[in-house]
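Researcher: Re-running this chain for the archive, since the previous output was lost when a drive failed. Same request as before.
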Amino acid sequence: MVLFDATVLLHVLFEHVEAPNDAHGEPITKCKERIEFLLKNLSESRVQVILPTPVLAEVLVLAGHQRASILASISSTYAFKIEPFDEMAAVECAELLDAAGRARKAKRGDETKAKLKFDRQIIAIAKVHGVTTIYSDDGKFAAVARSNGIEVIGLSDLQLPPEPPQISIEFPDRS
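Model: Regenerated structure tokens:
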């Protein structure tokens, strides 16, 4: 199982989302093509993408008048599976928060306690559902996910689709 966070899901659902910057501060090249190729590969492999309800809420806030149609589209597609923050995820989240508290990890920079808890809810849902890979472009979230044994792949790490083969030119026979 894989999971998309909001930074990736926004690129899946909306045409005109700007490409985020790569590690060098430059916009990721061919971001849309990378996302489309990922979706194609996941679809061909019949891999379902977990969409945790906290991620869905984040995206629906930005959807405005498109909320109902986006939710209907997601709900009717085999590729996506919406998973709630339920009782099992709450227990897992409590473990994550307790472990973080015992380690006395200070919040970093502009991260709020609410954001840290929100991110841990997403990771808890991932762990409950056996997610092995999260697609995310949020570096701080990725660090927490990795520290919990989940692989994280950013948009700049996504494969580019193969270039189409060069067309062959047939020359007329001059004999």
